[in-house]
Amino acid sequence: MKRSVIFLLLLMCVACWSTTALAVPKGKSLTFDKAKMGVVTFDGTLHNSVAKKGCRECHNAGTFPQMKQGTVTITMENIYAGRQCGICHNGQRAFAAKGNCKKCHKH
Ligand code: HEC
Ligand code: HEC
Ligand code: HEC
Q1: Is 85 exposed, middle or buried (0-12, 13-18, 19+ CB in 10 A)?
Q2: Residues near ligand 2 with C-beta < 6 Å?
Q3: pLDDT in tens, 28-60
């Protein structure tokens, strides 16, 4: 009995540790460097603080389904249409993509 409780606690620790270690929000940034326009740095700390529904705000079937970089191809067409980063970068919740290229694309 005792042994299984300890094992369970251990499992829980590992689970906690791995989510914080992997979470984009906890001090981690992602770099998107495929566009000739310039490298985009996605700041996980900032973005977690503005996501009202937490991880699910971005990690849902219609936006970024997987917690793994490179599983979704981000395009400006999608962003302008209010998808992907454009669910917020629409001039309402956050600065619009049009006219603000350099706020995201840096050299
Ligand atoms: C504002 C949007 C947003 C929020 C909120 C968000 N993420 Fe992400 N996350 C992304 C994007 C975009 C990617 C890259 C997805 C892709 O390329 O397919 C990503 C990727 C990841 C990755 C993979 C990182 C890598 O190096 O491959 C992990 C792990 C992750 N997110 C965890 C989390 C967790 C845990 C939370 C909540 C605490 C969270 N994310 C909240 C946007 C977000
Ligand atoms: C949940 C809403 C949300 C989503 C989704 C989102 N952003 Fe943001 N982003 C914000 C807010 C809010 C700010 C703060 C600036 C503002 O208020 O306009 C911001 C700021 C930024 C900044 C400027 C950071 C700085 O240091 O000044 C960059 C770059 C950025 N976002 C890139 C992205 C990229 C790339 C994606 C998609 C992978 C994305 N964002 C998705 C809400 C979001
Ligand atoms: C909210 C952040 C953000 C803003 C603002 C933004 N972009 Fe992007 N853009 C991205 C991200 C993220 C990618 C994907 C890069 C990657 O996959 O490495 C991208 C990709 C691109 C691409 C290559 C893919 C495609 O759709 O052709 C071009 C070109 C591009 N951006 C041009 C622009 C121009 C021009 C502007 C201003 C009018 C702009 N971007 C504003 C985030 C942004």
Answers
A1: buried
A2: 40, 42-43, 46-47, 50-51, 57-58, 84-85, 87-89, 93-95, 103-104
A3: 999 999 999 999 999 999 999 999 999 999 999
